[in-house]
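May I ask for whichever protein you like with its backbone structure tokens?
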Amino acid sequence: MEPAVKYRLIHQDKHSGARLGELITPHGTFPTPMFMPVGTQASVKTMAPEELDTMGATVILANTYHLWLRPGPELIEEAGGLHKFMNWHKGILTDSGGFQVFSLADTRHITEEGVTFKNHLNGAKMFLSPEKAIAIENALGPDIMMSLDECPPFLKAMIMLKRVLLEPVVGLNVACRLTRILIGRRFLVLC
């Protein structure tokens, strides 16, 4: 089965390793690197889709955490996915909610299974695992999904950076869990 999203390398700088390429998705082919306007809640503030198109936007970034809270993945899926919900015919990337793991640090508890935190809207206790994030993103229907990650704060102790960045067991465990739920789906992993 061929992946729904492909990456084509056009050039890689021999000194820095910087890459120029393109992403080929069901909603078009887009150059990389690229600027992605942020439509956190399925809308880029103060801009209509036609204006984004005119200015050359190719991919919009939407946030899984915020769309999970409202309007909810079920409603977006029922509407035909984010593309129809947003009236956007080009690419969409969904962030997993990993930044909220960082920004809601005062209300969160991280374990190997996922993160528990308070909903910033109503204070309800919520749990987000890598599997739950991918399930929500599947319902949203973007071109590109990001897996749940943890963004360490700037200048955090080396021990946390080692845990987040260098322990292969944690990453491998999550990768194996995600692979189990993605079997049969077409996807591409960019490293």
